[in-house]
Amino acid sequence: MTVQNPSFSESPLPAASVVVEDTVRWLERAVIGLNLCPFAKGVHGKGQIHYVVSTATEGAQLLQELTRELKDLAEISPEKRDTTLLMAPMCFPDFLDFNDFLEQADALIDALDLGGILQIASFHPAFQFGGTAADDVTNCTNRAPYPTLHLLREDSIDRAVEAFPEAETIYERNMQVLEAMGTEGWLALDVGARCPVAPVAASQKGGA
User: Fold this and answer.
1) What is d(CA 108, CA 46) in angstroms, rounded to the nearest whole number?
2) I need a surface site. Which of 70, 151, 180, 191 has the fewest CB within 10 A?
3) What is the pLDDT along the chain (208 residues), one digit of tens a residue?
4) What number of other Cβ atoms are within 10 A of residue 11's Cβ?
5) For the purposes of burial, counting CB atoms within 10 Å of the CB of 176, is it exposed (0-12), middle (13-18) or buried (19 or more)?
6) Closest CA to 46 of 68, 77, 72
7) Up-side HSE of residue 40: CA atoms within 13 Å toward CB?
């Protein structure tokens, strides 16, 4: 595991170490613990995940940091860094705004000529599938403690899919797992954010 901890000099900003610890706890207890992503355990165990805590408070800043991290991931050896988690605790507390930002993030992949090489997945503490209520436990399959951009190598995804040929069933299985455990079970995992960040659910702005 590699961690990039910027210096947070202003008191309103959360401690980078806490953001990373919260994210690792979520990864170990939820993503790996519930086997929501069968591919996560390997890279976590090998220390091939790079954690970066963004200081961005608005989209333009986050886009700059994303540019840097995409370039770095493309240039570095996969054995040293297979994937990157870019957490933005002070940016896009509103899920719909974060969702809109993802269009810029995807466009950046093409602008950097990294299409077919890297891709971006996303997580948000207030993630909400269209047509679901904000408190529907299945939304937790895509919820992380903080707004997070997951930078992945397409080669790694292809290898993982070869090793798990029924990858298309993961989505449905995850839904079933969350429905079986219920909201109380999810809360018992204790994988929320400890920093004072208040996410805004999509339903508070009229639904997803």
Assistant:
1) 29
2) 180
3) 555 544 333 435 568 999 999 999 999 999 999 999 888 999 999 999 999 999 999 999 999 999 999 999 999 999 999 999 999 999 999 999 999 999 999 999 999 999 999 999 999 999 999 999 999 999 999 999 999 999 999 999 888 777 776 767 888 899 999 999 999 999 999 999 987 654 555 544 444 3
4) 6
5) exposed
6) 77
7) 18
